[in-house]
Amino acid sequence: MTNTDPKLLAASRALSAFTQDDLTHRVASLEDDFRGATADTVRHLLADCSVSHELLAGARVVKDIAGQINVVIHAIGILLCLPHVLDADEQILSLSLGAGNTGRAFDLETNRRIAEFKFIHWRGGAETIRQNALFKDLYQMVEFDTSKHRSMYVLGTHYPMKFLNSKRALSSIMSRNRPLWDDFVSRYGDSMTTVADYYALKKSAFTLVDVRPYIPALASSSSNEVYDRYDADTL
Questions:
Q1: How does pLDDT run across 138-148, given as a tens digit for each residue?
Q2: Are 116 and 153 in contact (CB under 8 A)?
Q3: Element (DSSP H or E) covering residue 11
C-alpha cells in the first residue's frame, strides 16, 4: 500500500467538497450567497460555505503539487511510449525526462535514433506559441549532425502537418529566439521564407509519429492542456 501525504489527501478532499464537482456553478452560487452581506453576516456565511484559512492553505498545497504535473506527464508519457517506438534490438543510450536543461540534447537517444516528444493537445486555431515550440525542437533535431534516424512523436499529426505545410513566416516563428534565428540564417540565408519551404526541403530527414494509440490517457482532452516539458517557459 502506498503512503499518501495526509496534507495532500486532506486538501484534495476539502477542495472537492468545496467545488462540489462543478467549480463554475459553485462560484456563481457563492456570488449569489454573498450579495447583500455585511461585515457581520459575512462571517456566518463563510462558515456556512466552508470557506476557511485551512481551505486556502489546502489549495496552496495542491497548487504546489500541480505545478509539477506537466513534468510528470511528460516523463510518464515517454516511458509508456518506449515499448512501442523501440525496435526489438534497439538500445537506449540516454533519456531526458525532466524539465529544463538536463544536459541532454534530446528526449530520447538510442543506438539508432534521436527523438523528441511533444504531448500537445492542439486546439486548431491560432497557436503561434505551440507552433514555435514544435518548430524549435524539430529544427534542432533535423539540423543535428548525426546519421541516426530522427523521430518527432506527437499527439495526432493533423495539426502539426497543417502547420508544417503552412505559409507562416520563419522570421515570425523564430522572432523571440535570436540564437535559433541566427543559426538558421547562417545555414540558409534568405533562401527560405516560410515553414512550408523548410518542410519541403527537410521532410525526408525525420518521421512524424502519432503516439495516441500508445498512450490513450492523453489521446483526448477536455481542457486543451499542454503537456510538455517546456510548458513553464514557452507554452
A1: 999 999 999 99
A2: yes
A3: helix 6-19
